[in-house]
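Exam revision sheet. Question 4 asks you to relate a sequence to its structure. Input first:
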Amino acid sequence: MRTAVISDIHGNLEAFTSVLEDIADQQADGIVSLGDNIGYGADSESVIQLLISNGIPSVLGNHEVAAINDKIFNWYRGDVKKAIQIARAGLSEDSLRYLKKLKISISDSGCLFVHGFPPDSFRLYLDQVSDEQLRQAFFEMKEDLCFVGHTHKLRLLVYENNQVLFQQMNQVPLTIQKDKKYIINAGSVGQPRDGDACAKYVIWDSQTCQLEVRTVEYDTATAAKKIIAAGIPSRFAALIDKKG
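Answer key, structure tokens:
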């Protein structure tokens, strides 16, 4: 079973459609989204409708929660709040109903999928937690693999002999050891924060026990122009515009 794990599309339709094409080329058997499908980009509604039409399961990200919960929305300030406000104003009733049905986490075939941090946080960042919190999370994890998003960066943590180790992620497929546990930060489709505007996602092959990072080029200039035209703060356009 080859599962494509995508995260943090953030309303970037150009990135998302290019990633879907790449996933089809890679002959993945299924797709799971780690949330934050909306916000920052100009096409949150179109992204949600593509998820629905393609039958792609997703967990709740913090942007989804803010779009359907006024209390959470009011936690935000400045540019981020403005981006979420524009995103949720553009969502149809159908899309809002879809968001309200999403769960905080999904557990399937030995894998846990959650936006922020296991077992069920949509707000806590992987790089915010202490070593002790990491060890405790690994110890309590029933699954061998946990896929998270939220940081917009690729990262792989391995739990071995009560120690948490960092392992490099690159284009070469990594072999996942069956006697270890892993937390995999799957990067971002629509707003990478690694200095490279290309969309990132990962493919998990449960038969070969290999994890592969995919990097996909797309029309960043168009996506950036649409952000500015929509009145979304321009710094989110600059993050993806290769000329910005």
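Marking note for examiners. The longest helix spans residues 13-25.
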